């Protein structure tokens, strides 16, 4: 084909001549061959001349305007040049006019498509396309000011966009089209587009009123992003007259935006809507139409409530807010935890009384709602404002203020009583005598938890399967796991085929992946019972039985490794069929195992001539409760088997010796090595165990080598492995590095309910929990359970908390929130005992940031439990000059302790 040869030669003039020499039908016949040639050369590097020749040849071989439009939209990025006009001239005028009509709706596809369309309009004199995309493409082309090649018509000279548009013949026709639906032109587009339309309407190319009205209609129909809407409205720069004329439209748009505003959304989610609303700049009269909408938003997230508060405050300043509505606003805002929001509301009430003292009686009652706020500084601020304006209100308001003062912190009771004309006791303000009287006050602590007995063995294979299914699904109950594991061993020994059939539905769903070994890995024991293909991690599971911890691990905790050893051993027991049941099943929910029950189980195995599996025996010994029962000790001593003699020796020795984890030199110890570990690193001496203990069991209490950052948090089974040695448990993996703090404090209630001394490590875990503010209910539960059991060393906990905060751990305010949670359950004396130990070190020298919040809580606790006795550091701080929150709260605490 001659055209192909000319394309390959890069002869652009020759291609144009050849196209001109061919009749239309012959040119159309060449289109398929040229398309095939394009595909053939698409994988090689072609010169610019060859590419231009191919574009020219293919454009000249399109038979219909429809085909030409489709081709131009497919290959829309070639450079328009003189040859483009030459090729288009080969077609009749009517053909080219129809091509314009087809390209007009797609003119934004590329500048190439627009340039060809504009050229054809000038060349043929056909009507201008009236589509939105053509208007957009025209404005973009004029902004770019691209010079046209020879013979290509279009373009306008000028130094800037406005200059070019003023001189453009298209402007009188296209600007009115843009103004008809301006949103379709400017939304999502650069800001200069609206700037150009505003300037052109000002010069008479279109009607500005029409632009303003139509733009607001489009804003309501299809609102853009808030930031862009704000920029558009700023560019539009409404005059006061225009602002009034579109009042209805703006109010409707504001109502629409308020309805779409995610009330509980994050700052990022709400910012676009709030920015849009602020840009609308609604007048107080317009906002008054939406007062109920704004009231409802006061219950939303902080940015939403702050916006609604600002609008309602403006309405009140304009005299457009009903008194009842203001009261409702105060009821919603003044008890919120966000201090910034509450302080803003108090400031608004202060200003309102200053503007109109005649409103003081009603507004002071509204203001007194803040008396029940949890924050002492807020209560004090509300009381200060009440004192400032009380004279303006008169005596008629005193009964309501006295009633509201009942909700004040007892530390402010004396001042409130003086203001409102009553004696200065909390009882006189409506409080109860129990709230302040030392001799009658007692903390309300939770009942001492009583461990639940673990039911006996599961009687049927079906029940075993049901319990296994629950554990595999994620049940963390210790008793459920232990009974399920024992049930697999028992029923596999008696009737393995029946158990295998019962387990079939359980095996359809594998447990969720975890980094550490977890109870749900019981699935692998069930699979071994059935003879199913093992999971990939089962191989490692078997190796754990024979592995000691000689270096830090980044995957497996000590407790997880012990669990893995037990699971692997259970698979071996199932296969061998030698042991009919497990020794280590606890008798209590804490994991404790009664000595008499263990004696009975070992005696039963002795009678059968069965030696228990070593990991199972080790776990049983670690769990057995020390006993002084002479009958049990005598019976154990009478056993003649090696295992029986081992049990007797273990019981006579009282089990494992307890290990103190307090660091050497506390409370003045220096950070140990490595430096990444802080002074808080517990001592871990390690106990010397019987050499017959398997390595995984010995590692639980033996010399500790650390870990490299555990991914899975502590779980209840950790605690149940050492039910009489929680201090040794907590001294190890709990304080090492971890990939996340989430979930770790969740097991602290189990630790508090467990057995053994609660020393340095147990208390330090609670101290860290108080400042992390992660799983706070669990941390508070642990603190209160320790207190209820008489095991809380509040002095130690307070000193640890003080040391952490002085060591630049952020969290004094967090600790105050957590301890307040505990105090408000009725444990004011307990919390005060912790604060009394912490405050001296936190106030000495340079007070720790945030200690003012702890002082505020201390005032509340002391006022309620009636504690007395000066603390020198508190007195020194209270005697300072100034009125900072720290000094004010120190003064209140000093006075409360007198």
Secondary-structure topology with pairs:
Blueprint: H1 2-9, H2 12-21, H3 24-29, H4 31-41, H5 48-60, H6 65-74, H7 82-88, H8 93-104, H9 111-124, H10 132-144, H11 161-166, H12 171-180, H13 182-186, H14 192-202, H15 208-221, H16 226-236, H17 240-245, H18 247-260, H19 267-280, H20 284-288, H21 291-297, H22 302-317, H23 323-333, H24 339-355, H25 360-367, H26 376-393, H27 398-405, H28 413-420, H29 461-472, H30 478-503, H31 522-530, H32 538-544, H33 558-576, H34 595-608, H35 614-623, H36 630-637, H37 642-652, H38 695-698, H39 716-721, H40 726-730, H41 748-753, H42 760-772, H43 776-788, H44 794-806, H45 812-823, H46 828-843, H47 851-865, H48 872-878, H49 885-897
Helix pairs in contact: 1-2, 1-5, 2-5, 5-7, 6-8, 8-9, 15-18, 16-19, 18-19, 19-22, 21-22, 22-24, 23-25, 24-25, 24-26, 25-26, 27-28, 29-30, 30-31, 30-33, 31-33, 32-33, 34-37, 36-37, 42-43, 42-44, 42-45, 43-45, 44-46, 45-46, 45-47, 46-47, 46-48, 47-49, 48-49
Roughly how many Å is the radius of gyration?
41 Å
Number of strands: 0
- Strand % is under 5%
Largest sheet, in brief, is: none
| Mean pLDDT over all positions | 89
> Distance between termini?
110 Å
What would your notes on this structure say?
The chain is mainly alpha-helical and 898 residues long. The model is unreliable at 423-438 and 670-677 (pLDDT under 50).
């Amino acid at each position: 084909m001659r055209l192909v040869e000319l394309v390959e030669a890069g002869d652009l003039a020759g291609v144009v001549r050849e196209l001109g020499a061919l009749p239309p039908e012959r040119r159309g016949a060449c289109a398929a061959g040229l398309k095939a040639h394009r595909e053939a050369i698409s994988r090689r590097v072609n010169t610019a001349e060859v590419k231009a020749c191919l574009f020219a040849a293919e454009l000249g071989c399109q038979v219909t305007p429809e085909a030409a439009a489709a081709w131009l939209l497919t290959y829309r990025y070639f450079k328009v040049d003189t040859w483009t006009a030459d090729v288009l001239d080969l077609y009749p005028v009517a053909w080219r006019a129809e091509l314009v009509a087809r390209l007009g709706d797609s003119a934004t596809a590329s500048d190439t498509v627009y340039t060809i369309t504009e050229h054809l309009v000038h060349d043929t004199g056909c009507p201008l396309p009236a589509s939105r995309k053509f208007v957009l493409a025209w404005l973009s082309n004029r902004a770019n000011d691209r010079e046209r090649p020879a013979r290509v018509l279009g373009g306008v000279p000028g130094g800037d966009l406005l200059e070019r548009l003023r001189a453009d013949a298209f402007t009188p026709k296209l600007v009115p089209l843009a103004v008809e639906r301006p949103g379709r032109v400017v939304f999502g587009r650069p800001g200069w587009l609206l700037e150009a339309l505003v300037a052109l309407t000002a010069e008479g190319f279109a009607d500005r009123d029409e632009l303003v009205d139509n733009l607001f209609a489009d804003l309501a129909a299809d609102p853009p992003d808030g930031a862009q809407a704000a920029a558009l409205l700023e560019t539009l720069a409404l005059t006061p007259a225009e602002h009034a004329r579109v009042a209805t439209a703006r109010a409707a748009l504001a109502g629409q935006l308020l309805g779409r505003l995610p009330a509980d959304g994050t700052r990022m989610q709400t910012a676009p809507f709030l920015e849009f609303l602020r840009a609308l700049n609604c007048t107080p009269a317009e906002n008054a139409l939406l007062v109920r909408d704004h009231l409802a938003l006061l219950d939303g997230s902080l940015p939403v409530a702050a916006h609604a508060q600002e609008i309602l405050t403006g309405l009140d300043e304009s005299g457009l807010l009903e008194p009842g509505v203001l009261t409702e606003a105060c009821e919603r805002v003044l008890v919120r935890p966000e201090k910034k929001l509450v302080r803003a509301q108090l400031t608004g009430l202060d200003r309102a009384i200053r503007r109109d003292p005649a409103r003081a009686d009603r507004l002071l009652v509204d203001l007194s709602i803040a008396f029940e706020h949890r924050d002492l500084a807020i209560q004090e601020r509300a009381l200060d404002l009440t004192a400032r304006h009380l004279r303006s209100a008169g005596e008629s308001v005193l009964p309501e203020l006295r009633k509201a003062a009942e909700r004040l912190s007892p530390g402010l009771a004396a001042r409130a009583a003086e203001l409102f004309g009553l004696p200065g006791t909390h009882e006189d303000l409506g409080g109860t005598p129990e709230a302040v009287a030392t001799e009658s006050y007692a903390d309300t602590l939770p009942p001492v938890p009583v461990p639940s007995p673990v039911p006996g063995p599961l009687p049927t294979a079906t029940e075993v399967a049901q319990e296994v299914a629950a554990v595999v699904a994620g049940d963390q109950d210790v008793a459920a796991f232990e009974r399920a594991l024992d049930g697999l061993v028992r029923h596999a020994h008696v009737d393995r085929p029946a158990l295998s059939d019962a387990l079939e539905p359980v095996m359809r769903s594998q447990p969720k992946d975890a980094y550490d070994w977890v109870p749900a890995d019981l699935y692998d024991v069930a699979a071994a019972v059935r003879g199913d293909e093992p999971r990939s991690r089962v191989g490692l599971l078997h190796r754990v039985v024979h592995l000691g911890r000689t270096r830090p691990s980044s995957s497996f905790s000590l407790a997880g490794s012990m669990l893995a050893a037990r699971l692997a051993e259970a698979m071996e027991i199932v296969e061998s069929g030698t042991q009919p049941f497990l020794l280590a099943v606890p008798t209590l929910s804490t994991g404790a195992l009664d000595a008499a029950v263990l004696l009975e189980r070992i005696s039963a195995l002795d009678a059968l001539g069965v030696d228990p599996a070593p990991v199972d025996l080790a776990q049983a010994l670690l769990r057995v409760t020390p006993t002084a029962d002479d009958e049990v000790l005598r019976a154990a001593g009478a056993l003649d088997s090696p295992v029986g003699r081992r049990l007797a020796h273990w019981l006579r020795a009282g089990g494992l010796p307890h290990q103190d984890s307090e660091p050497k030199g506390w409370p003045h110890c220096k950070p140990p090595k490595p430096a990444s570990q802080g002074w808080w690193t517990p001592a871990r001496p390690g106990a010397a165990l019987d050499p017959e203990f398997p390595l995984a069991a010995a590692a639980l209490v033996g010399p500790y080598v650390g870990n490299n950052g555990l991914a899975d948090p502590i779980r209840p089974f950790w605690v149940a492995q050492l039910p009489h040695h929680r201090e040794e448990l907590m001294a190890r993996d709990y304080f090492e590095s971890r990939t996340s703090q989430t979930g770790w404090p969740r097991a602290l209630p189990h630790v508090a309910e467990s057995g053994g001394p609660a020393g340095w490590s147990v208390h330090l875990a609670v101290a860290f929990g108080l400042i992390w503010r992660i799983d706070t209910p669990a941390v508070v539960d642990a603190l209160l359970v320790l207190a209820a059991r008489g095991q809380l060393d509040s002095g130690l906990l307070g000193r640890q908390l003080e040391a952490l905060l002085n060591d630049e751990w952020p969290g004094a305010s967090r600790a105050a929130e957590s301890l307040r949670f505990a105090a408000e359950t009725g444990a004011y004396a307990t919390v005060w005992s912790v604060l009394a130990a912490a405050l001296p070190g936190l106030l000495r020298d340079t007070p720790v940031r945030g200690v003012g919040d702890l002082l505020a809580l201390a005032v509340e606790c002391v006022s309620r439990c009636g504690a007395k006795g000066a603390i020198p550091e508190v007195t020194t701080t209270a005697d300072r000059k100034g009125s900072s929150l720290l000094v004010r709260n120190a003064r209140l605490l000093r006075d409360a302790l007198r």
